[in-house]
Every structure is written in structure tokens, then in C-alpha cells.
Amino acid sequence: MKRKIGYCGNICDYCPLYIATESGDKDKLARVAILWHKVGVRPQILPPEEMACHGCTPDKTCPFGIIKCALEKNVNDCGGCPEYPCPNLKSRLDFIPQLSEDWKKVCTKEEYDLVHRAFWQKKENLDKAHEKYLANKRDEKARRNIQVDGE
């Protein structure tokens, strides 16, 4: 099954916020609002309608500039970028171990398992995407060499 991956490598299909939004369940969104506040993502508990997330979209604001950068470079995610991992993304990835530990302290096991799959494996997700990008580049180069040799 193809997963919905964010520009930064998050897997939307595992994100509690994305799941709640896609289900249309306002009670789930309200629970996620409490969780986001509990772990420090939001300074206050927001109403469910302000929490909705349909994944990364070009009109969404990313505080780290990742969406804007991906759009400028015309890539689906950071793994498809020739500059992967850039300093900006690397600085985000370097925070994951600490964030993961912080969230583990305040989340239930179920909550943590979801966010771990959604957020804390982004480097692995992007590494796989970058491997595909590099393989495609090698294939393109080989096709060009065959065309030149065959002429």
C-alpha cells in the first residue's frame, strides 16, 4: 500500500491528526488537540476545526521552510532532492531523538506508537526516497548513454 508521505518524511497515514481529520470525527480531533498541547506542539488546546490537517499542501505554512523549498525545487519530498540531506533538514532530523524521548514521557503507549511511526522514522523514509531518486538518475544516465551509443 502506498503511504502518504509529507515533504519532510512524515507518514501522514500514521499521524493522529491526519487520521482524525480524514475520519471526520470531531471527538478524535479534540483528543489530538489535547495531545498536541500535552506534548508542547500547541501552546493551548485548539478547537477541533482549527486542528484539521489533510497533509502537507502547497498552501500550508511550514515553520521550517521545507514545503516552500520542496516546491521551489519541484520535488515530492526531501528525499527526491539532489541536495538531500540539506543543512535545514539535517537540523530537523537531529532533533528527533530528543523529541522522541520527550514525547515518550507524556504519551500513552498507543499514542507514542502512532507518533513514532508517523514522525520519528522520517530519516529512514527519506533515505528510501533518496535511494529511489539516485536509482532513477542512474537509469536516466544509462538510457542517455545507450541512445548516444546506438546512434
Overview of the molecule:
- The structure is a single chain.
- The protein has one domain (12-150).
- Helices cover 62% and strands 0% of the residues.
- It is built from eight helices and no strands.
- The radius of gyration is 18 Å and the shape is elongated.
- The mean pLDDT is 90.
Q: How is the main sheet built?
A: none
Number of DSSP E strands: 0
Structural class call reads mainly alpha
Radius of gyration: 18 Å
Q: Multimeric state of these chains?
A: single chain
Count every helix, treating DSSP H or I runs of 4 or more residues as helices.
8
| Distance between the amino and carboxyl termini | 41 Å
Summarize model confidence as the mean pLDDT.
90
Q: Helices and strands, in N-to-C order?
A: HHHHHHHH
Number of domains: 1
Helix content: 55-70%
Descriptive keywords:
single chain; 151 residues; mainly alpha; elongated
Describe, in short, the structure shown.
By secondary structure, the protein is an all-alpha fold. The protein is built from 8 helices and no strands.
Secondary structure topology:
Elements: H1 16-23, H2 26-38, H3 48-51, H4 66-73, H5 87-94, H6 96-106, H7 109-120, H8 122-150
